[in-house]
Amino acid sequence: MDFAGIHSSVFTIKNNCPYGIAPATLTGSGDSVPTGFELAPQASNTINMPVPWSGRVWARFSCSNDDGKFHCESGDCGSGQVGCNGAGAAPPATLVEFTLSPAGQMDFYDVSLVDGFNLPVSVVSQDGVGCPTTDCPVDINAQCMPELAVKDASGGTIGCKSACVAFNKPEYCCAGDHSSPDTCPPTNYSQFFKNLCPKAYSFAYDDKTSTFTCNSGANYLITFCP
Fold first, then answer.
1. What is the pLDDT of residues 14-40, one digit of tens each?
2. Could you tell me the CA-to-CA distances from 116 to 43, 68, 109, 224 in Å, in that order?
3. pLDDT at residue 61 in the model
4. Which cysteine pairs are joined by S-S bonds (predicted)?
């Protein structure tokens, strides 16, 4: 029997927050995986990931199931269910992005704040030798600028928008006349995120210090509120 084509990674997703969260996934390419589930504090769940695969992982919080419709105040995907079923996160949301590659190639992964921030997160390779950790371990909500802050009904900050999401201007979104690294440098807003989370993407052209690689076949621990 030929096992050469059988290749997968395992994502272990842990909730280290003091409240319940609802992690979710969005597949960009590759076979589909579970699109959402709930995690109580200190609980974890594993997903067997197909390879090759690319997509993102994030987490929702302040969730309720009023009138039989599942909804979260932060990171919601709008599906009305715990599973996001192919829908992405409404920004702001901290995104963990992966490209899992076939055997003999490299995996790529990053933490992105390009769409803003909602929860701290870390990504740790559990068995890849020399595979760096990336993270955004700081609660940016606690320091978010007023013009970027998203608040809940009680006035608490539950998300911090990126300047692109908040203002939708080309110089912040690296669009139009600003659609290249030369014409879209860091801004005061992206530097605010970068100073707090140096390993995370703070804007579109933040590749040099924000994308990490690991030998394919590694398993990954994704911890929210590390």
1. 999 999 999 999 999 999 999 999 999
2. 25, 29, 17, 15
3. 98
4. 17-225, 63-72, 77-84, 131-214, 136-197, 144-160, 164-173, 174-184
Which pTM value belongs to this model? Answer: 0.95
**Which CATH number characterizes residue 87's domain?**
2.60.110.10
**In angstroms, rounded to a whole number, what is the distance separating the alpha carbons of residues 73 and 18?**
17
Whether residue 173 lies inside any domain: the answer is yes
3-state secondary structure 70-116: CEEEECCCCCCCCCCCCCCCCCCCCEEEEEECCCCCEEEEEEECCCC
Amino acid in the structure at residue 206: D
Measured over the CA atoms of residue 28, residue 32, residue 37 and residue 41, the dihedral's sign is negative
2 located within any domain: no
Q: Is residue 84 part of a domain?
A: yes
* SS3 of the chain: CCCCCCCEEEEEEEECCCCCEEEEEEEEECCCCCCECCECCCCEEEEEEECCEEEEEEEEEEEECHHHCCEEEECCCCCCCCCCCCCCCCCCCCEEEEEECCCCCEEEEEEECCCCECCCEEEEECCCCCCCCEEECCCHHHHCCCCCEEECCCCCEEEECCHHHHHCCHHHHCCHHHCCCCCCCCCHHHHHHHHHCCCCECCCCCHHHCCEEEECCCCEEEEECC
Closest CA to 140 of 154, 123, 153, 121: 121
CA-to-CA distance for 194 and 172, rounded, in angstroms? 14
